[in-house]
Amino acid sequence: MNKTSSITNVVIAGLGGQGVIRAANILAETAFRSGLDVKQGEIHGMSQRGGSVTSDVRFGQKVYSPMVPTGEADYVLVLHPSQVDNNRYHKKEGGYFFSVFDLKDGLVQLIDLDNDASTPVTERNCNIALLGMLSIHLPFDDAVWEIAIKNNLPKKVHDENLAVFHYGKSIVPKG
Amino acid sequence: MSTTLEPRLLSGNQAVAWAALHLGVSLGTGYPGTPSTEILENFSLLGGRAQWAPNEKVALEVGIGVAYGGARALVTMKHVGVNVAADPLFTVAYTGVEGSLVLVSADDPGLSSSQNEQDNRRYAVAASVMMLEPGDAQEAYDFLFDAFTLSETWKLPVMFRMTTRVCHSRGIVTPREPAPQAKPPHFVRNRAAYVMIPGYAGPAHRRMRAKMAQILEWNENSALNKVYEGDTFLGIVTASVAFQHAREAAPDASFLKLGMTYPLPLERIRQFRNTVDRCIVIEEGDPYLVDAMRAAGIECEGKAEMYRFGELNITRVRRILANDTSPEPALPKGKPPELCKGCPHRMAFSVLKKYDCVISGDIGCYTLSVLPPFETHDSCVCMGASIGVGLGLRHALPEDEARRIVSVIGDSTFVHSGITGLAEMVYNPPKTGHVVIILDNGTTAMTGMQEHPGTGRTMEHKKTGRIVFEDVARAMGVTNVLVIENTAEFDRALSDSLARDELTLIILRKMCRLAEPKLKQYQAETESCHE
User: Do residues B360 and B491 both lie within one domain?
Assistant: First the structure.
C-alpha cells in the first residue's frame, strides 16, 4: 500500500520580506493542530535580500520529505505579480493557483487589489487573504486557523488579519 | 515540566537548540553561517548559554576547553566553517575530552547560500571522528542526545552533520525528559592525553584508533541505523534527508537508513544487501557510502554523476531509481537577491566602479555586488581571502595594473580572518602599497544581523569588549588609516590612496539599512547602562 498517497502539497511563493514563510508557518501549524503530520521546507539565507522565496508545506497521515515533488502541488499561493510565471510549474494538473493579481488564466482565482476599493486586502496582509482562499479547500476548522494566525502575528494586527482571512474565504473565484 | 514535553512544530535547528537545553549543555559557541545560525540563536532565546566566537577555529577551541573541563560543549558552524576549524578538529580527535563535545556541521548541498558544496562526511573519515546524520527535526532532537551520550561514553568528539533541508525544514518533535549532566565540571590533569607533543601524540593516535574499532563494533548493532522491511526486489541504503525523499519515491522498497555514518557499519550493510535483489544507494552529494560499500566488496548501484550536484528531492530520486540520465528539465529561475535599497554598500561600489578598480572581494552581503548593476567583485574565495588574494595580485601584476587592486571586506569577516591578512600586508608589503576597505555596517548582515567582536555587544546585545578596527590597524603598523562616513570623502580617499605607494586601510562606517533601527536601540540600551 502506498502510505503517502494522501499527502496535500502546498507551495507558497513570493519575494523576501513579503511574509511567505509566515504564511507557511500558519498553514503548517493549522495542519499540526488539526492532528496531521506536517513537513515544511524553505530556503533562507540570501532570500532576505529581496530575492525569490518559496516554502513548501506538506501534510497528511505520514509525511517524509519536506519538499513538494516537481509539478505536484495541489495548491500554489503566489504573493507577488513578478513571481507568478516562474512558479506555475509547481501546480499539478487539476490543482489550484491562487494569487492576488490578475493572471489572465482560466484556472486562476483572484482578488483585484487595484480595482476594488472595498477590499481590506493590502500588500502586507495578502498572505493571510490567500490562506483564507485556500482554507475553503481544506478540512480545517476556522477556530484552528484563527489560533495559528494569532500565534504567528503580533497582537496589534490580530483583528485586521482575522478580518482579511475571512474576507479571503468570501472571495468568489472568477473564470 | 510536563507542558514542555508536548509535541511541537520545530525546524531542525530549533530542535537541536531544544535538545541542547534539555541536555543542559554548558556552553554553545560558533560562528554564524547559513544554514547553522539559528541553532545558537534559539539556544540563547531558550535560556541556554550561547556566544558567537570571532571564527569557527576559536569556537571549536573554546568548545574543546569546555569539554576538557568535564562539561558539555556544543559548537555550531556551516560546512565551510569546518575548514577553518579543521586544525583543532584533527587533534582533539586524538586527545579526546573529559566531558563531551559535539560539533554541528551544517552542509549546504544545492548552495542555498554558500561558496561550495563540500560534503563534510569526508571530514569524519579524515579526522577519525564519529558522525551522526539526522534526517528531520525529530531526529535532530533525538540524535543530539545520542551524540552527547556517545561523546561522554567514549570521551571523544562527535560530528553532527545536518544539511540545509534538515536545518530549515520544520516537522513535529516530541521532546524527552530533560537529562542534564550529573557530574560537575572539574579539570583533571592528564598531560599525556592533552599535550600533543610527538611522544604523546603517537600513543594517542593508537588509543583513538583502538576506540574507533570498538565503536565500529558497537555501531554494527546500533539502533541509530534502522531497517524498514519492504519488498525484497529493491533495497535502498540511505541516510539524512535523502531517506525522506527515497521513502516517498519508493514506498514499497526495503530500507537501511544509516544514522551513524562514521565509522560505517559495513557488515550491517552487507547483511541488508544480501536480503534484497537490487541494492541502490541514495545519498546527497559525494558518493561516500557507495564508494565505501564497493571498497568492502558490497555490490550496489550508485547515482549518475549528474545527481552529485545540487540537492536531491523526490523527483530526482525517482529518476535515479529508474536509471534516468536524460537531461533534467530546466526550471524557471526566481529573482536573484540584491543589495537592499538604501544599502550603504551601494555607495561604496558606485565609487569603486568609477575608478575601475579590480576588486578582491570577500564573503557577505557585499558579494552580491558581483551581479548587475554593479558587477564590482572580481574574486571571492573564502572568509578573509580578500586581503591575501589582493596582495598576491599586487605582487604579480605590472605596476599600472597592480595600482587598481583593492581588497574589500566586511566588518564581521574582517574579525573572522582579515586581521591575519593585515599582518601579511604589513610584513610583506607590495611595491605599490595596497588599499584595503572595510565595509563596516555594524553587524553580520548576511546571516541575519548577528553581533560580532567589532560591535562591542554580545549575542544577547549586551555591552562587552569591542575590537576597534582603526586602533588594531594602526597598532599593527598600517600607516594610512582612514575612517569615513560619506560618499565625497570616500571618493577622495580612494583616489588619493590608489595613487600612493602606501599601505592604506579605509573603514567605511555606515550602518546596515535593515539593521539600523535595532542597532540604534541596542546602542541606546548599552549606553544607558553604567557599569
Answer: yes
A102: pLDDT strictly greater than 60: no
pLDDT band at B197 (very low <50, low <70, confident <90, very high): very high
ipTM of the complex: 0.92
Beta strands in B419-513 (DSSP E): 434-440, 480-484, 503-509
Query: Is there a single domain that holds both residue B27 and residue B153?
Result: yes
Looking at the partner chain, which of A4, A28, A29 has a beta carbon nearest the beta carbon of B251?
Answer: A4
- Domains of chain A plus CATH, in order, are 7-169 (3.40.920.10)
- Is the Cβ pair B113, A44 closer than 8 Å? yes
Residue B190 counted as domain residue: yes
The dihedral built from the CA positions of residue B131, B132, B135 and B141, taken in this order, carries a sign that is: negative
**Among candidates A42, A43, A50 on the partner chain, residue whose Cβ is nearest the Cβ of B338:** A50
Per-residue confidence band for A109, with pLDDT thresholds at 50, 70 and 90: very low
> Could you say which of B202, B219, B236 is where a domain stops?
B219
B219 touches chain A (CB under 8 A): no
Of B164, B198, B219, the last residue of a domain is B219
Question: Within its chain, how far is the Cα of B127 from the centroid?
Answer: 17
- B203 and B240, same domain (yes or no): no
Total domains, chain B: 3
- Of A167, A73, A173, whose CA–CA distance to A128 is shortest? A167
| Whole-number Å distance between alpha carbons of B123 and B159 | 9
| β partners of residue B105 | B77, B161
B241 touches chain A (CB under 8 A): yes
pTM above the 0.90 mark? yes
Q: Are residues B313 and B377 in the same domain?
A: no
Q: Which among B243, B315, B339 has CB closest to A69? A: B315
The whole-number average pLDDT for the span B263-280 is: 98
Q: Are residues B73 and B127 in the same domain?
A: yes
Distance of CA B468 to the CA centre of its chain: 26
A64:B243 CB<8 A: yes
| Tens of pLDDT, residues A33-45 | 999 999 999 865 5
**CATH code of residue B422:** 3.40.50.970
pLDDT score at B3: 54
Q: What is the pLDDT of residue A117?
A: 57
Quick one: which of B505, B531, B350, B341 has its CA closest to B436? Answer: B505
- Would you call B332 and A83 a contact, using CB atoms and an 8 Å cutoff? no
Kindly state whether residue B168 falls inside one of the protein's structural domains: yes
Cβ pair B347, B493 in contact under 8 A: no
Interface with A, mutate which of B8, B113, B169 (most A CBs under 10 A)? B169
Same domain, B352 and B487: yes
| Closest of A168, A160, A124 to residue A22, by C-alpha | A124
Spell out which residues of chain A touch residue B79, defining contact as CB-CB under 8 Å: none
Quick: pLDDT tens for B118-176. Answer: 999 999 999 999 999 999 999 999 999 999 999 999 999 999 999 999 999 999 999 99
Q: Are residues B194 and B275 in the same domain?
A: no
Express each pLDDT in A58-74 by its tens digit.
999 999 999 999 999 99
| Domain extent at residue B148 | 8-219
